[in-house]
Amino acid sequence: MNPRYLLRSLLQIVPVLYIVSLIVFILVYLTGDPSALLVPEDATEADRLALVAAWGLDQPWYVQYLVYMRNILSGDFGVSYRYGTEALPIVLERIPATLLLTAGALGVAIAIAVPSGIIAALKHNTASDVIVSGISVLGKAMPTFWVGIMLVLIFGVWLRVLPVSGGGSLAHLILPAVTLGIGFAADLTKLIRASMLEVLGRDYVRTARAKGIPDRVIIFNHVLRNALIPALTMTSLHVIALLGGALVTETVFAWPGLGLLVVNAIYTKDMAVIQIAVFVITLMTLLINFATDLLYRAIDPRIKL
Q1: What digits encode the pLDDT tens for the residues 87-103?
Q2: The pTM is what?
Q3: Burial grade of 114 (CB within 10 A; 0-12, 13-18, 19 or more)
Q4: How does 193-231 read in b/e, with b if 16+ C-beta sit within 10 Å?
Q5: Phi, psi angles (nearest 5°) of residue 79
Q6: Which of 41, 47, 216, 231 sits in a 20 to 30 Å window from 293, CA-based?
Q7: How many C-beta atoms surround the C-beta of residue 165 within 10 A?
Q8: Nearest by Cα to 258 from 273, 268, 237
Q9: CB-based burial of residue 49 (10 Å sphere; 0-12 exposed, 13-18 middle, 19+ buried)?
């Protein structure tokens, strides 16, 4: 590992987090004063003004932002308006559920895409290739929320074999993981098929076949390994998209992850929770990109960091 590359990658995280924090703060600020959602219906105007002053919401936006950044630098990530406790533990508590859902969706996508892409490439221009390509197009065309609703209707309402909301068991994970994984599987299948077709046409594959090397060895030791590099790029991008796509899926299935937390925080204008949640998602995105670079080097040593 190049120490200079590692240091440069870590230093790039700081300005990105700062820019993201500023953008999110401004967007949340523009949504209006959250005090109307915080005070009881029978509260007086004096009570509302007292609450606004207690939370510092009566200050100009730039003053609120400077106070927020000062608190972050001192390790204080703010207090949730809704829960009345520190926002950081609330967000950290939801991370494992979101990572579990993302990992489940990724597993579903890989389990579908890898064999499908290989079959389509090896059976190029045959009925198998047409069927796989057609299913991939269909999978990509279906919106995630619609897939989730259909799965709830079929497996939760009609068949009653799987739970449709909440978390806590493997059975609760199946429907949201499949919902998120289907769209990614469609993209990954097409990419693996195209990459394998390109690699199958290269000179070193023809040379290996001329030497009498078994097709199984050629496909898994040479073709698939080299076809994985573009697939790895798409996988890293989709993992990031899965973290964002979990917002909708977690809401549909009431999955207790970051997505559901952020949606509820947006409804209640809980700025502290929104800020730290976006911070965490951004940090995970940067770390995923960094890990992808390292995997490039592991798969193909010719790639320089």
Answers
A1: 889 999 988 888 899 89
A2: 0.80
A3: middle
A4: bbbbbebbeeeebeebeeeeeeeeebbeebbbebbbeeb
A5: -115, 135
A6: 216
A7: 14
A8: 273
A9: middle
